[in-house]
Amino acid sequence: MSKFGLWWVTWNGSDYESRMTVGSRKATIEDFRERGFDRIVFLGSLSYGGPHLPENGTNQYRYNKLQEYVRALCNGYYDWNVDSDNPNKGKSRYDVGYLDGQFLSLWISSRVGTIKYYVPIPFSYGLDNPIRNPLNEKKKYSAPPRDCPMNGFDESYWHGWIDGVLSVVDDYRVGFYWSYESCLQATKHDPNFVDYFSPMYNANTKEYVDDYKAFIRDMSRYIHNRGHELVWIPATGARSAEYLRDSSGIPVISKHFDYVFVQPNYYQYNSTYTSDELVKKVKWIYESSLSIEMEADSAVLHSQSGHCALCKYENNHYVCDNEGCLERACQYVGAILEVDYEIFNREPIPPERATDTLFPDRAYYFGTDFKVVDAVRGRCPEW
Fold first, then answer.
1. For residue 55, which of 138, 151, 160, 125 has the smallest C-alpha distance?
2. What is the pLDDT of residues 159-194, one digit of tens each?
3. Is the full-model pTM beyond 0.70?
4. Where does residue 188 rank: exposed (0-12), middle (13-18), buried (19+ CB within 10 A)?
5. For the chain, what is the radius of gyration of the CA atoms?
6. Can you list the domains of the chain with their CATH numbers?
7. Over the range 33-45, which residues count as b (16 or more CB within 10 Å of their CB) and which as e?
8. How far apart are CA 245 and CA 241, in angstroms?
9. What is the distance between the alpha carbons of residues 377 and 117, in angstroms, rounded to a whole number?
């Protein structure tokens, strides 16, 4: 029974910084331990030494560069004119990934201490100034992929990244976290296929899906052959349990991961996403032999805002129903208990024993402030 806490980091242009806090002070590894987290998953904004798209210039020029970038990725090279000033120009995709992964691994290993942890494998890199499609101004492109999965895993950026991480010896590193959250990957609806590879590379749908599944399989085998685990935390949005079962990529590739913590995303979505739908989704997660991510953020704290479904934009800032957001976070526990009772047809479990029910292994999203964990557990200790 393990509790996975998410440790958010950011790249400041020259080094990594931790984003974790306890109120106004910087958090430490002990803040994870004190709240029962025995494993850590690192994630966030990660450095990228490969070619970058221009942030300035006309939209048409930048869109053309984006097309050039994707075509070059899929042709298997990094040496082109999209970023001629890049100091890594001429290096292979593998070499760029190796250096990026090694740099992050050195930073983590000097700070994490004696607790098991997972290093992220970044799928995309950030783009501060999104590019719009000249033919459809409502369509924005951001976070371009770091490589092309259709080329396979061997000698890819991600292959290099993993080897770079592993070049730093650390007995407490137990695995990797696949950072591409979309539950639509490995399907024809994959956003990266729809946005990048299909229109900019003329990729065939079936070919892409088959190659992508092979890419995940080969990456998983490579990691497992080196004695490490692989974790995935797919986002499901307001999609129904039926959709996830029949149309998502979760049933397709989940077998390649040691832990799959499904994001119910009930905390973040309102509209037609009811508590009954949350119960159905929790039941599907359990029946699929998967695990769950518990979710909350700073919107549960008095006078603060976040990504809760009960936040709205007013007078140039977000206003949240903090009490409602707190209740929405606690409804995860209620859904778990309801499904536990339905499946096993036993007497309802007391709330204080809720952590002994369906999902003994859980991941926790709580933003970057440990006060969120304290606030939610103050209302529902079993969270």
1. 125
2. 999 999 999 999 999 999 999 999 999 999 999 999
3. yes
4. middle
5. 21
6. 3-379 (3.20.20)
7. eeeebebbbbbbb
8. 6
9. 23
